[in-house]
Amino acid sequence: MQTLPLNQAFTLIEPGPVTLVTTSDGRNDNVMTITWTMVMDFSPIFAITTGRWNHSWTALRDTRECVIAIPPVDMIDTVIGIGTCSGVDTDKFRKFGLTRARGGYVRPPLIRECLANIECRVIDIVERHSIVVLEGLAAWIDPKREERRTLHAVGDGTFIVDGERFDRKEAMRSKLPDGV
Ligand SMILES: Cc1cc2nc3c(=O)[nH]c(=O)nc-3n(C[C@H](O)[C@H](O)[C@H](O)COP(=O)(O)O)c2cc1C
Hints:
Layout: E1 2-4, H1 10-13, E2 19-24, E3 29-34, E4 37-41, E5 45-49, H2 56-63, E6 65-70, H3 76-82, H4 92-95, E7 100-101, E8 110-111, E9 116-126, E10 131-141, E11 151-153, E12 159-161, H5 169-172
The structure holds flavin mononucleotide.
Residues 18, 30, 32-36, 49-50, 54-56, 80, 83-87, 153 line the site of flavin mononucleotide.
């Protein structure tokens, strides 16, 4: 994996891919599937929606750290598996054969099989709406990963895969931050 300039990290989340969010409570690492995400600022600031009904919640709230990993389409069954069992009774890294990589800023591991990973710290929790606001600290990408298409959840148990990409950079230049 190699670093991606932090000012480009929002482009990993803006298309709305299915994500895996890793946490660590200091003894055990855990991972959950999250599809409710949002970019809130280029800096980058993100929001995810989750809450105390998940085991990951306690580590997220107490350590205020996580990693957002972006799996490609060939991980679809892993994504579903991770999102349908709990770290309460399952070592998901072992069960799903995930390879940990160490980041530079936070304790939760990066997932080597993923296309990209963003190290984040929690900067706010809006409990009333179960929104966790994250600041990206560092971003990593795997340029050698052959499968580059990401997954998009419809919400009814079906998924859409990335399709054609259109380039309108020049027309949008006035709205794009420097460096993207
Ligand atoms: C496709 C998919 C998308 C999901 N998206 C979210 C989400 O956006 N927010 C959330 O809280 N849970 C979401 N979940 C559910 C959690 O991933 C699930 O409850 C998981 O088992 C929590 O793991 P944990 O108990 O180890 O934290 C999703 C699950 C799947 C399969």
